[in-house]
Amino acid sequence: MQLILAGHTNSYHTYSLDEALAGIAKAGFKYVELSAVEGWTEHVPLDATDEQIAEIQATMDRLGLKTSALSGHSDLTTEHGLAVGKKAVDLCVKLGLNLMNTAIGGHYSEDENKDAFMANIHDLADYAAERNVTLGLEVHGDIMATGQMSIQMPWGGPRTGHTGSISTSTVAPNSRSSFFCFSVSRTGVSTLTWQYRSPG
Known about the structure:
By secondary structure, this protein is of the alpha/beta class. It has one domain (6-196): TIM Barrel (Alpha-Beta Barrel), CATH 3.20.20. The chain contains five helices and seven strands, in the order βαβαβαβαβαββ.
């Protein structure tokens, strides 16, 4: 996975997508993470049409920007959040992206129920892996507050067909400014990396 520095349209939460992209380009960024977070920063609708995507791409081309990832946060402790997460993966496919960032409890992370999260994350990861999309989980909130806590999650717990193991050789144990990136398929964990993300 190539490490790049990208501007995030969520930094322009109260602005339009056009304003966000213009600001990111003016700041000197060449890459952008688009926000498609239901109920929060909906710069790209989860059900974006081909015409809407073409308009977004045309704006980015004009500004010299390339998309690096999609912010598709949803509350993965709920069935609704799982369904929204799958819609975000589908949007990644439409956008030609292979990285979707999210978090356990969505953008609020108010109620992080580990059991509920673990009941859903493998389903979402399988769905993403089948579409060649890697999930990035924010080191954020309570359950995944640090790199060490994230690695200690029961990723390879009891699950039919799941036999993967996770290597921890690249873990930044106390980092609060990283993404835990992985892809879990029915045959196991296929990708695990730590990607630096600046605080703020």
